[in-house]
Design brief:
It contains 15 helices and 22 strands. By secondary structure, it is α+β, with helices and mostly antiparallel strands.
Length: 469
């Protein structure tokens, strides 16, 4: 191994960039870091665009301020490292609603991702079946069991709670369905409680009681100027050689590290490095690993993804409720699954000209055919459905944007965490200088992806002989 480390980060999303910053901070000072991003821009699902002269998010909108233990989330810590904490802003309107039975109803409080800890509080939107949540004399789950969220909640609280409350909450985050998504992955606190509690109501309350309290503290944040500010600052702070439009097609072990084959087949380039952080979605990662670690490729290659489209409309002086937005159960029969009133939710985005920015999310797992519509059709449908949900015709938009995210959101089926842990164990034993990072493995959300990238970088540093700082 050369005395000067050379590390490649494959993937320029926030997980890859966080890995690059951590390598710069913890690896020897002369370490060479190369970030290879196959698209023309860094940031992955963090993308700030412009509409009518102002910034607007065309991808992820915000981040959690706290981690599950109650401290600063990984992204807040990274923002501090990058000198961006003064740019953090918080929602000025936090109440959201559910579109049920043709009207907007406030999302009930006291739930975990829609799973109620007080059945009376959800009676305005769903009819629970409390008699089904009986004590059978044993914990809901075994010590290593995992089930879908829908399977557990349907059995204990009934279909109505799943269809009208839990499903839209999970759909807003994962674009997936409660009946398919892993409890242990999407709701780990509830899964832990279910391994000791005998009823779902007790498990929800136990998970809520164990969670840190955030009284008086904001839960969500974003950046004034847009989340692309984070992307740019992280790329700069990493000191990495940034290569966009640089698709990595092959990954080959050498005697001392790895050889990356980059670029088109007709004119490939070979890049030799000591270690690799593979910060790309599961399927492209599996393709790169097929000839390197076929058992790992098999474990991660089956992960499926949902596609979504984000439709942003600029509406002149519309009448909007004082809500941050709303979620839509699939039982309502609408194309929209969620909507955010940007200029109501975020005070720093409000405009003097009275124009409101409204974004709708379109696309649920399994409904990809709906996303084949032309942009104009999607925008017109969103405008019509927004008017119907709000109960008043909205003015015609004066500008708009449709952002399509194909294969954007991982669908974590039961057993996901065990599969990823097993894949990483095999990879660590056979190829310790090759690590996985990103949402496909560790979960969605900017803080989770940042932590995933940082952890992968730490493993690389350890494998190469430890930090010099």
């Amino acid at each position: 191994m050369a005395s000067r480390w050379r590390v490649a980060v494959v993937g320029g999303g926030i997980a890859g960039l966080a890995a690059a910053v951590r390598l710069r901070d913890r690896a020897p000072e002369d370490t060479e870091i190369i970030v290879c991003e196959q698209s023309g821009a860094l940031g992955g699902k963090l993308r700030t665009g412009e509409l009518l002269g102002g910034p607007v998010e065309f991808g992820a909108e915000s981040f959690l301020m706290r981690d599950p233990a109650g401290g600063d989330s990984a992204v807040v810590t990274l923002l501090r490292r990058l000198g961006l904490t003064e740019r953090i802003v918080h929602p000025t309107v936090g109440q959201a609603a559910l579109a049920v039975d043709g009207q907007l109803r406030p999302i009930p409080g006291g739930t975990l991702m829609g799973v109620p800890g007080d059945l009376e509080k959800v009676a305005t939107v769903a009819r629970p079946t409390p008699e089904a949540d009986h004590d059978g004399g044993a914990p809901l789950l075994g010590a290593t069991d995992d089930v879908s969220v829908g399977a557990l909640v349907r059995a204990r609280f009934g279909d109505d709670v799943v269809d009208r409350l839990v499903d839209p909450m999970l759909g807003g985050v994962y674009a997936g369905r409660a009946d398919d998504l892993s409890l242990a992955t999407t709701m780990p606190a509830l899964a832990r409680a279910a391994r000791t509690r005998h009823t779902l109501l007790d498990a929800v309350r136990a998970a809520q009681a164990a969670a840190p309290r955030y009284t008086g503290q904001p839960i969500f944040g974003t950046l004034d100027g847009g989340l692309s500010t984070l992307v740019e600052a992280a790329a700069t702070a990493s000191g990495a050689t940034i290569r966009t439009n640089a698709a990595v097609r092959e990954l080959t072990p050498t005697g001392t590290g790895w050889r990356l084959t980059v670029g088109p087949t007709r004119d490939p380039e070979h890049v030799d490095v000591d270690a690799v952080v593979l910060a790309v979605p599961a399927r492209p990662a599996a393709r790169l690993l097929t000839d390197v670690a076929d058992a790992v490729a098999a474990k991660i290659g089956g992960l499926d993804y949902a596609s979504v489209a984000l439709v942003t409309l600029a509406l002149p002086e519309p009448t909007l409720p004082q809500l941050s937005g709303f979620l839509v159960p699939s039982t309502e029969g609408l194309l929209i699954k969620a909507s955010t009133f940007f200029t109501t939710k975020w005070g720093h985005l409000r405009r003097d000209d009275g124009v409101a920015l409204v974004r709708a999310s379109v696309g649920r797992y399994g409904d990809e055919a709906q996303l084949q519509r032309p942009d104009e059709d999607l925008a017109a449908t969103v405008h019509r459905e927004l008017s119907a949900v709000l109960g008043t015709p909205l003015p015609a938009p004066i500008a708009g944007h449709v952002q399509r995210w194909g294969g954007a959101l991982p669908q974590y089926t039961p057993g996901h965490l065990d599969r990823i842990a097993a894949a990483r164990a095999v990879l660590r034993a056979a190829h310790p200088t090759l690590t996985l990072a990103g949402a496909g493995y560790d979960g969605v959300g900017i803080p989770v992806c940042v932590r995933s990238g940082e952890t992968a970088a730490e493993e690389i540093i350890t494998a190469l002989g430890g930090s010099a700082r």
